[in-house]
Queue: 3 jobs
Job 1
Amino acid sequence: MDKKVLRGRVIPGANRGKQLGFPTANLDIPSEALPRTGVYAVWARIEGEKLWRAAAASIGYNPTFAEQTKKIEVHLLGFSGELYGRVLEIAPAAYLRPEKRYRSSASLIQQMRRDCRRAQKILDRAQSP
């Protein structure tokens, strides 16, 4: 897995993450700069802050919603606040799984809960950048 730090401004998305109970920061990063598709445990830092936060990120095409553009969406674990227009730095810590199409939103939500728990466990044992 590529360990480089990705940096991008938070831009508006479809608000699906929020609707599903997992608000995400959609980052404006060229798709060719993104690592392989899948779900990752990542460290995230809001520009101007020293603290690296635990997060889960989805990189890919959102196959459940049949999107055509590769993008990165980051869910900061335990964070609530407004990030639009802010810059985030993302440091991948672990590849969790490939992206997958789910038959229902309920199935996707269950998987997202598992992904977030797994990311938190991994990051609890890992050193931030």
Job 2
Amino acid sequence: MLGDLNQEQIKNLLSSQMIGRLGCHADDKTYVVPVTYAYDKEYLYMHTQEGMKIDMMRKNPKVCFEVDHVDNMANWQSAVVWGTYEELNGKEAEHALQTLVNRVMPLVTSQTSRPRYSLDRPHAPVNPNVKTVVFRIKLTEATGRFEKSQ
């Protein structure tokens, strides 16, 4: 059976996952990249280094985000949400990073998957030569689909 996810099911899917795909568009180019995120019912929180996606979102803050959960080809859920990029600083950045730490750290299994910021000072990069950008996506619209075998 194929169907549409309702808004509550979309929120549950966003809450249950921590890797999704962020899509942005600027200068006649579309860029989609996997990212780790945390969701709090209103925002998606993320962090990254300065680069192509940050440059693009600064030019055009309207983005989309896709997340899915696939058990097999006959049992899956997928949601696409749209929203607005907001770069964070100060207390808002600290809150976002703490939200990410709380979501991701229980699942960290290797040194290479550890975040590049200090846990005792989450807004301070471990490597001061790396410019960390903390941001959130304010969600404005959502849609979702599912398939479930009978």
Job 3
Amino acid sequence: MKYFYLVLLLSLTALSSQANITFQDPAGAEVVKSNWSKERIGWEGDPFRGPIENFDEVRARTRNEKRIEDAKRGSSADIDRIRQEAKADAANIETQHKSVTSRYVFVYKTTIKNISTKTIKLIDWDYVFRDKSTDTELNRQQFTSEEKIAPGKAKELTVVISKPPTQTVSVTSLNTSERDSLKGEVVLVRIEFTDGTVWQAPE
């Protein structure tokens, strides 16, 4: 009899510990839209943007400009020499900029709408990528976003990382056809509400 009560007590304890977790659909939230993009960093080599100078380069340019102004009070030979030196510095900076390899980061976004009567405080979500032709899962990016979303409201969640959707997507070059073979979707994995309850997707 004591053994029966012990088993019953352990069962009730286990049920109590799981009381705040539900596995039923719906999740209390829905994915409104999602998208991902590749953003270029290392813009120094981009011909469509203005020159980007770091601190040392700004200081060198300012110094050269001051030297030219000071030299104007001297001989023309001094001015010519300083201008040549400034031109050489500028050429060196341009060469350094051209040698910078552009890299890319990846921006993953999804808009989540709270369709429950409780306020969401945290969402675990996966961005799943599949092969368009075979529907085979190739990879998934796993994210956790701490965002409060009131009932009936929607919010965009954004994550920026250096990891590409799949190994077929380059991190050092731009290829606009890379996404042609991929199909992406956002899957809600876990949701925490401000009242302490938790929704967990069934495995």
